[in-house]
Amino acid sequence: MTPRVIVRRMTLDDINQVVAIDRESFSTPWSANAYRFEVANRDTSHLVVLETYSDTNGAGLRRMLWPFARRAQPGQVIGYGGCWLIAGEAHISTIAVHPVHRGQGLGELLLASMLKHAIRLGGAYSVLEVRESNLTAQALYRKYEYAVIGRRKHYYRDNGEDALLMEARPLDGAYYQRIEARLASLSGRIHFDDRFTR
Predict the structure, then answer these.
(1) pLDDT in tens, 82-117
(2) Active-site residue (options: 129, 132, 161, 167)
(3) How far is Cα 21 from Cα 35, in angstroms, rounded to an integer?
(4) What pLDDT sits at residue 100?
(5) 141 catalytic per annotation
(6) Sign of dihedral through CA atoms 30, 34, 40, 44?
(7) Homologous superfamily of 4-194
(8) CB within 8 Å of 160: residues ≥ 6 apart
């Protein structure tokens, strides 16, 4: 069952949960200090989290089903992403969803939210690096019109794997409308309250 989530800016209080997801997601995770620096650097660094919430509708039924459902507790961070915005370049720096909640469209929600936010702040194009072996992530990025424009040899320190450099451009009004349409489609699958791009 896909949890209900709030999409909002990352705060210092989120860092412990973010670091825990980072460690489960990547072989070379960022440190807590790196996240503290990014959260404080609000001019160029834009970090987002997915925080679970619940409503009162059907609360009794949910309590009865709780032992049988893999659900996050309200107030839990289950995904995060980061984007650096410098001189029109929106660089997706990191994105991850807790392993229990993958495959539900939450990574796409994070990416779409960061791109929408970047466009509103003047982003003209977006770039990112992705492992050559990470075909799932590449499929998501292609869905958002990223194309491979280069390769960074031995980019990843843990195993020397190459990174593919991908780019989406232009981040113009038409692209913004396509993101809005994708978010509208996602709202049919995921209950989310967007407090990041308003």
Answers:
(1) 999 999 999 999 999 999 999 999 999 999 999 999
(2) 129
(3) 13
(4) 94
(5) yes
(6) negative
(7) Gcn5-related N-acetyltransferase (GNAT) (3.40.630.30)
(8) 154
Phi-psi region for residue 122, left (φ > 0), alpha (ψ -120 to 50) or beta? left
The CA-atom distances, in angstroms, between 110 and each of 1, 6, 56, 70, 189 are 18, 11, 25, 21, 14
Annotated catalytic residue within 35, 80, 141, 146: 141
Q: How far apart are CA 167 and CA 89, in angstroms?
A: 10
Lookup: tokens for 92: 């997706």
Nearest to 46 by CA among 131, 138, 111, 134: 111
Alpha carbon distance 195, 179 (integer Å): 16
Residue 72's pLDDT is: 54
**Distance of alpha carbon 8 from the chain centroid:** 11
SS3 70: coil
Tell me the H-state helices in 26-171: 32-40, 59-65, 106-120, 135-143
Three-state DSSP at 89 gives strand
Return d(Cα 117, Cα 21) in angstroms, integer: 23
Weakly modelled stretches of the chain, pLDDT under 50 = 56-70
pLDDT for the residue 190 = 94
Helix ranges (H only) for the chain are 15-25, 32-40, 59-65, 106-120, 135-143, 173-186
